[in-house]
Amino acid sequence: xxxxxxxxxxxxxxxxxxxxxxxxxxxxxxxxxxxxxxxxxxxxxxxxxxxxxxxxxxxxxxxxxxxxxxxxxxxxxxxxxxxxxxxxxxxxxxxxxxxxxxxxxxxxxxxxxxxxxxxxxxxxxxxxxxxxxxxxxxxxxxxxxxxxxxxxxxxxxxxxxxxxxxxxxxxxxxxxxxxxxxxxxxxxxxxxxxxxxxxxxxxxxxxxxxxxxxxxxxxxxxxxxxxxxxxxxxxxxxxxxxxxxxxxxxxxxxxxxxxxxxxxxxxxxxxxxxxxxxxxxxxxxxxxxxxxxxxxxxxxxxxxxxxxxxxxxxxxxxxxxxxxxxxxxxxxxxxxxxxxxxxxxxxxxxxxxxxxxxxxxxxxxxxxxxxxxxxxxxxxxxxxxxxxxxxxxxxxxxxxxxxxxxxxxxxxxxxxxxxxxxxxxxxxxxxxxxxxx
Length: 437
Prior knowledge:
By secondary structure, the chain is of the alpha/beta class. Helix content is 26%, strand content 24%. Helix 6 crosses helix 7 and helix 9 runs parallel beside helix 10.
């Protein structure tokens, strides 16, 4: 069923470290770490990303990220299965059931990545579709493909077999115990600039299949950038949708995210979350063929990213190899007093933005908690000012405010004559909770 939770999903996704190569032991190790060190702070989803069905994934990384027409595990109805060599517990047709059981046993939730459509090899072999007289070759649309991954054809609109195929895979995932599905090449089908949301009907089919399954499953759409004019459609049929293409550890991408959050800030709602993409923190890139690296973000930039994602209300998905987190990164990811802002009880709004800085406000109307976030875009420290009384979100709620506690540093600041002032480091952020006498 389409979830209407009151908090953006938080979890770990295998992509930023493992690319296409993650295996069962690695997923379990990260799940174990999450249960021991992150669960108490609200982290709960463990997501196996792209090409878990590919037997040769990563073996030709110097030439291909996704090997053209490589070997895949598949049943007789064209449904992809986990590669048994990488996920040995899936043997005997058990799929991800045993791994999902393991994750659930830790008190966590289990997710997988899928590509939009039906496997090309299923169409070429004219495989049957479970519950339908239509075969895979008839339901597949050979003119609808992904520009960067060769595995799938899109499914035809208004074809009974198309919905039946989605019903069949979602029912299988529900039987496995899947709690989260990240569907790719669907939020923006960017191979088709004249029709960048050409997969809209497949979003609706996925939604329908999830509703039929009777299981609570988060539906996440990738890649971005999502189309603002289609916001209503994403909100109706999905739980998350990417507002950016792949986000990595570069300042220019982080600076650009402020423009994207400004565009999407009015579309955060219970069960519907514009997604700023994964958090490239800690150790990254071990499966990309050139060795792992430490995030290129400075500590101040990491604080900026975490602050923006939280006050905006984005889902939070860590991409690091969790077992290699250092103490500082673990501290960054377990600040309950900051992570709570991804709850829909807290509403974030941009107050001001120019070439040098941005200011966001965040309000919990029930508890009267009021926050201000200062962001410095410059290459040197900057003094930022904000008149608390002029913040639209705080109208009628500023009487008696005299102090502000900065959450990342623990420092206190005075609100003098209604103005909060602080020096913010280069590319850094300050997050204040406003306090009365």
